[in-house]
Write a structure and sequence with these properties.
It holds the Pfam family Aldedh. By secondary structure, the chain is an alpha/beta fold. 38% of the residues lie in helices and 17% in strands. It has 17 helices and 20 strands. Helix 14 (442-451) links the parallel strand 17 (434-438) and strand 18.
Length: 544
């Protein structure tokens, strides 16, 4: 469903439509508004229906997908989970194969939806969205049997004779709330982990990326088991209704403000959460680097990566005063090489997602203490939702652009006398989701890894750490909690159950009262770890 805003209704003579899509054949979804005497309706067979009436009086009628409807949905999914259906290896594999098939067969539709939402270039859409989701799915298909196997562990003498194992069991019915900047891969990636772990899943995609949200709803309904995997579309009202329910896990990707809301809602039911948030990700550039390679990798991690609209994008650079002019010149050269001299005409960059975020970015640029710091770029066109790659030099640390996550094509460069001074600057800010260092100095590398706290790091590159499935991806502090990717996704949606096996043999009387002095000596000997004492205890030398 789309958000209704007064700005949509400037022409009373025209007709408009809103489409709400949800659980096939289960709910009727109605949302009614009154603004400017415009009326419209739209319906899709077997899906939610969305109807609205608009007049001069603003009046909102309670949507039918409310907390009660959400409760019905969760209860149905819980029945499916309790039946044991989702726990079997065969069901998990069949659903993962369906996702893989869906990605292969619908690649063109996925690319088109991403173009509508963000004007993503085809190659970027393939690499950052389709390939990432496909790789996650293939890895899960390949490794699932191994992931599901109980992990044998050693036992202690106190339980002899015995054996023990750790069993990964699904959590139950889980909620995945996704975001708009990578609306396909960041929706499917956690869902793949949840399915691999054997859970029933509700996916709530972002309404801001409406084309991809609608596509996911249709494709999941077409390819997946509708009794266990559901897409619920909508905006604040629908998300709020979902958050009022008791889940066995909530996985949220988005900003810290909404993350706090999600966590507060989860706390009411003691529901565990994974929060994939963001922050100001720094890149520190030493003077001993290959400037050409460094600049290309920074450009790739800033403007090529969804035009800076990525939680792991380079947010700002710290370098020495001496190196800054050379670094800026090389960055400009690389930007023009990749995007052309006329930056606003380039088709190789995604656009800003919507006018709200466009205006937010312009406000960052137009702040009094910042507007005169632009050394490259700065052009903008609101009708196209485009802002050129922009470099700023030595903006004040207390400016808005250095206080909040930029999430766009603006790149401040801050200079310091010594590179080590950058560590204190980074540590004054909340812990970022990612931190980057470009240096050939092994001592600087060690200090950076030891002294900078971040969700993840890359040395002499940007963003590629998220493509390594053996590395966890997640934040720390205000950049999030929990992690996923590869087996970490399976673990994120699993409970590690401790299981101890014993026979009826070896039932030592020392564990039972009365605890005589001789028994106490025997217990101390058994727990001492010294072989002679243990042998004496087992042979019964410690007696009253």
């Amino acid at each position: 469903m789309m958000i209704v805003s007064p700005g949509l209704f400037k022409h009373p003579s025209r007709s408009y439509s809103i489409v709400g899509v949800g659980l096939l054949g289960t709910f009727t979804y109605c949302h009614k508004y009154k603004i400017n005497r415009v009326s419209f309706s739209s319906s899709i067979p077997s899906y939610y229906h969305c109807r609205a009436t608009l007049s001069t009086m603003m009046e909102e009628v309670k949507p039918e997908f409310d907390s009660d409807k959400a409760a019905v949905l969760v209860n149905e999914l819980r029945k499916t989970f309790n039946s044991g259906k989702t726990k079997s290896y065969e069901w998990r594999i069949s659903q993962l194969e369906s996702i893989s098939k869906m990605i292969d067969e619908k690649e063109k539709e996925i690319v088109e939806a991403l173009r509508k939402d963000l004007s993503k270039p085809e190659l970027e859409a393939f690499l950052s969205e389709i390939l990432m989701a496909r790789s996650s799915c293939k890895l899960a298909l390949k490794e699932l049997k191994q992931w599901m196997m109980p992990q044998k562990v050693e036992t202690s003498l106190a339980t002899y004779p015995s054996s023990a194992e750790i069993v990964a069991e699904p959590l139950g019915v889980v909620l995945v709330i996704s975001t708009w900047n990578f609306p396909f891969s960041l929706s499917l990636d956690p869902v793949i982990g949840a399915i691999a772990a054997g859970n029933a899943v509700v996916l709530k995609p972002s309404e801001i990326a409406s084309a991809t949200s609608s596509l996911l709803s249709r494709l999941v309904g077409e390819y997946m088991d509708k009794s266990a995997i559901i897409v619920v579309e909508g905006a604040v009202a629908e998300t709020s209704a979902l958050l009022e329910q008791k889940w066995d896990k909530i996985f949220f990707t988005g900003g810290a403000r909404v993350g706090r809301i999600v966590m507060a809602a989860a706390a009411k039911n003691l529901t565990p959460v994974t929060l994939e948030l963001g922050g100001k990700c720094p890149a520190v550039v030493d003077s001993n680097v290959n400037l050409q390679v460094t600049s290309r990798r920074i450009v790739a991690g800033k403007w090529v990566c969804n035009n800076g609209q990525a939680c792991i994008s380079v947010d700002y650079i710290i370098t020495t005063k001496e190196l800054a002019p050379k670094l800026i010149a090389t960055l400009v050269s690389v930007v023009e090489e990749i995007f052309g001299k006329d930056l606003m005409e380039s088709k190789e960059r995604s656009r800003i997602i919507n006018s709200f975020h466009f205006k937010r970015l312009v406000n960052l640029l137009e702040e009094d203490k910042v507007s005169n710091k632009i050394v490259f770029g700065g052009q903008r066109e609101e009708s196209q939702l485009q802002i050129a790659p922009t470099i700023l030099l030595d903006v004040p640390e207390d400016s808005m652009i250095m206080q909040e996550e930029i999430f766009g094509p603006l790149l401040p460069i801050i200079t310091v006398e010594r590179l080590e001074d950058s560590f204190a600057m980074i540590n004054r800010k909340p812990k970022p989701l990612a931190a980057y260092l470009f240096s050939d100095d092994e001592q600087i590398k060690r200090k950076f890894v030891q002294n900078i706290c971040a969700g993840g790091m890359a040395i002499n590159d940007t963003i590629l750490q998220v493509t390594v499935p053996t590395l966890p991806f997640g934040g720390v502090g205000e950049s999030g909690m929990g992690s996923y990717h590869g087996k970490f996704s399976f673990d994120a949606f699993s409970h590690k159950k401790a299981v101890l096996y014993r026979s009826f043999a070896g039932d030592s009387p020392t564990r039972y009262p009365p605890y005589t002095p001789g028994k106490k000596k025997q217990i101390k000997a058994l727990l001492s770890g010294k072989l002679l004492n243990i042998m004496l205890a087992l042979l019964g030398f410690y007696k009253d």
